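[audit] Reproducing an earlier prediction to check determinism. Same input, same settings, fresh worker. If the tokens differ from the archived copy the diff job will pick it up downstream; this log only records the rerun itself.
[audit] input (296 residues):
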Amino acid sequence: MRRWRCLPAIALGLSAFLSADGARSDVATPTSVRVGGNLYYGLSNINGSVRRHTDGQWAGVGTAYPSVLSLTWMGADLDTAVGSFGVGDLNTGSGRTAQQPVECYYRRPIGSATVTFGKHYVPFALQEWEYETRWGMMAETIVLGTSMEVSITSNPHTDALNTSIRAAWHVAAGSEVGISAAAGRGWSYGTSHNWGYGIDATVDVGPVSVTTEALEARGAHGTYQFGFIKAVLHSHHRATPYVALFYGHDSADEIAELRSGIVGVDIEALPHLTVSPCIGRAGGRNIWSLQTRVAF
């Protein structure tokens, strides 16, 4: 067991000590426990022949968003403990690529900041590429109108310490610009890249929301470059159409090349059920998928 896995327990005592200066709320709220889930299931020809998938599709090239069941505890001092476990192929299949649990952390407000101890999603850009959870600690705060997230984690592939940071500015109603940086051996999925940077933006123009990011990972063996742009049309109907383009280039030949474009629609069939058909082109092939998502 890695030493980082004891951090959630250590945080219980540490955060209590740090908040002894009066950060505790004057009016205590009752504790609560909630069971949640985010479950995907669908069919696609993305991997050649038509196959089922039990995790969320990403970029028209494969699964990246894990199906999870979660347990959330909320304390009287606005502190939170979360544990989520993957139930799809990413975490339980024969070719699984992610380790359990998906998340396991304790989070507590301390003054104007929030600290997190345990396994959490690493802050970097919009996580369209860096969609990883790792054991470590993270601090979040707002400084002079700038949202800041800083994370120090243990990399399970290299056993090295990795650091990532993201700063974001709200430039207008519904619009935000962020910059990110990361360093440490194997910071991007354990590859040879040892540092990287990125920029992202979210812009709302009427009913259309546009998100985009560009990043570069650097190392001794070469660079990896990634970029995407996605436009979503929000309406008063249950259908939310979108179009997205993705690009990836790896001169170090460690991450697959990526060229894809997809068009789809998210349909709220029921209050907790979304059905998402999409078509597109990826890897020189015409692709399609039909996915369902149950969230509660």
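[audit] rerun output stored. Observation attached for the diff report: The chain has one domain: 3-295.
[audit] end
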